[in-house]
Amino acid sequence: MSDASAPAPARAAGPSFGGKWTYAVLAVALLFVLMPFLFWNATWFGRPLTDDQISKSLSDHKHAREIQHALTQLEIRMERNDTSVRRWYPQLVSLASDPLTEIRVTDAWVMGQDTTSEDFHEVLRKMLSDPQPMVQRNAALSLVRFGDDSGHGVIVGMLQPFAMPAPTSGTVRERLKPGDALNPGTLVGHIDSGDRSSSEIRVAVPGTLTAWAVADKSAIAAGRSLLFIAPSNEIVWEALRALYLIGKPEDATAIEPYLRGGEDVPSQVREQARLTLERVRSRSSS
Which residue in 54, 77, 118, 136 has the fewest CB atoms around it within 10 Å? Predict the structure, then answer.
């Protein structure tokens, strides 16, 4: 307990923080609190949008995140069986050919939320031929919801290492090494061409870099396998769940490694592998 009779400590001499200094300190403190909120608010797709905001965002082709936000809000409403969202269905079909990959990726997933739409079903089949693997994967997974196994090959491929082709010819300069985690868009290196120009190597799928197909500072031709990516646990989980519904007996060889997986394979994934393996094997006798 403090002694109430003790003299107050001497106050060090210094500038007063009254007046304009007080407001300056408060302003800085407010920024530290407000800026993270503004950033979160701008990037969080869970913020509800009005119908007018959705219509405006879907037409805002200068800001991809605005379109993604609107698509995510439509997905939420579709899950609630809100039939009013059908007014935007023609725009969802149109966005399947948007030049931005991230828009097509999101769109392919959202269209899987309403399996009563034949327009969605038709365009999702076409998206299986999209040049970007993540668009193909979301289209294949959405088609499963329609009871359509057209994307079976794509889904099985999700369980296997992804061989990324070289985007151009030149000399490889590696930036990341095997074992590094990757997300779509991660910069893993560069390819230098003979005219002193350089192209970035950015991956298209999430996972872990397992190996470079060529040595650092060696030449490679466009289209040749450049590196290999082991699928992320999230990708494996989605693929196993889909194969539980549409898998075939011959898929067992792709599933078995995740049943025997070590500590790097979560127990949830191993259990799903077990269930999926039992289901696909049972189809050989049916």
Answer: 118
Tally of domains within the chain: 3
- Domain boundary (101, 123, 150) is at 150
Pairing of strands 162-165, 170-174: unpaired
Q: Per-residue pLDDT tens for 230-267?
A: 999 999 999 999 999 999 999 999 999 999 877 788 99
Record the pTM: 0.81
Give the tens place of pLDDT for each residue, 126-167: 999 999 999 999 999 999 999 999 999 999 999 999 999 999
Residues 105 and 191 in one domain: no
Q: Which of 150, 181, 212 is the last residue of a domain?
A: 150
Domain containing residue 222: CATH number: 2.40.50.100
For residues 145 and 97, give the distance between their C-alpha atoms in angstroms, rounded to a whole number.
21
Q: Which of 277, 280, 278, 258 is nearest to 268 (CA)?
A: 258
Quote the domain boundaries for residue 256.
Answer: 232-286
Q: Which three-class secondary structure state does DSSP give residue 209?
A: strand
State whether 98 and 184 are in the same domain: no
CA atoms of 221 and 146, how far apart (whole Å): 40
- Cα torsion 41, 44, 50, 52: sign: positive
Written as six digits, the tokens of 57 are: 């965002």
Distance from C-alpha of 136 to C-alpha of 125, rounded to nearest angstrom: 9
CA distance 202 to 76: 31
Q: Do 108 and 121 reside in the same domain of the chain?
A: yes
- Separation between Cα atoms, residue 188 and residue 173, nearest integer Å: 9
Answer whether residue 77 is part of any domain: yes
Tokens of 158: 């999700």
Q: List residues bridging with 174 in a β-sheet.
A: 189
